[in-house]
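Section 4.2 – Deliverable D4.2 (structural model, holo form)

The reporting period included a commitment to supply a predicted holo structure for the target in complex with nicotinamide-adenine-dinucleotide. Inputs used:
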Amino acid sequence: MPTNNQVQDCGTLIVQVAQVTADVLILLFQVLYAFILSIVTLVVRKQPKSVRGEIVLITGAGHGIGKELAFLYASQGATVVIWDINEKNGTQTVKEIEQLGHPKAHFFLCDVSNRENVLTVAKDVQQKVGDVTILINNAGIMPTHPLLEHSKDEIQRIMDINVMAHFWTLEAFLPVMKKHNYGHIVSLSSTAGIFGIPNLVPYCCSKYAVRGLMEALYQECRADKKNEIKFTSIYPYMVDTGLCKKPIIKFQNLMPLVNPKEAAAEIMDAQRRDLNEITIPRYIFYAHNLCRMLPLKAQLFIFDFVGVGLESDLS
Ligand SMILES: NC(=O)c1ccc[n+]([C@@H]2O[C@H](COP(=O)([O-])OP(=O)(O)OC[C@H]3O[C@@H](n4cnc5c(N)ncnc54)[C@H](O)[C@@H]3O)[C@@H](O)[C@H]2O)c1
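Output (structure tokens):
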């Protein structure tokens, strides 16, 4: 004959099992709902939101992808704030945007790796232009050679520009976005931020760091159920800006360098559709996720077969 205590314990256990079963069922429905929603949004694409009237700050917009982004945002009616360490290229970008008939472009000389410089120039931007509503952390460098041929200063510089700068710009602009509960952070990682590539050890490390930063920050802000600040991480394959000095591409026709204009269009589209992350081209996202499920040896066979990489820029 069970005692009263045993009957009570058994009752508690049944309640707990029922509770967990109900929670798991709810979770399964939520996962199914998310899955169906993502398929629907693949077919019925969300309308891109307007950027007219937004203040878009793009770091490293004196050249390459950043410059193309500046053109695109200006052409869509946004005020564009160009930051670059290269004054000549930065002012030239503004000049070219103005020549296209878009008067709302501003250049500020800024070394994004320098926290004091970032915070000072950010105040200047706030006073002269206004509150930044879209921040695009784009500036980056990519020295390409074997790890032991990187000097300590070079490794430090890669981390300062490619990673630490994101902390400084976030320190400068995220508080105002939080205050208004409005804004969008876009960060340039790389496909080198989702798989390791020879000759790019510090660079890959910096781009994996950007991925971690963005994912963790997104989760942190999401914890506030009322949060409306959006996050978009970008993982481009090699883009034809000159950053990749000696690309190796086995299948030239299948995997050519991406045109910088196309890369910028993809980035702006992802931002305007509030996409959380994209690879450029987009199929790399699915190919990569599928590959990661395979045994390491199989992944390595595929990596060697695809045959994409970079030769040392010292050779
Ligand atoms: N080009 C590619 O193949 C490729 C691929 C994947 C990811 N990315 C990433 O995209 C971003 C842009 O690349 P890109 O190819 O346009 O490069 P780019 O070299 O053409 O332009 C980078 C710009 O950043 C500026 N810059 C560098 N250091 C700076 C600093 N300390 N402060 C302010 N500005 C600074 C440069 O002056 C330059 O104008 C980078 O983060 C890069 O890592 C590029």
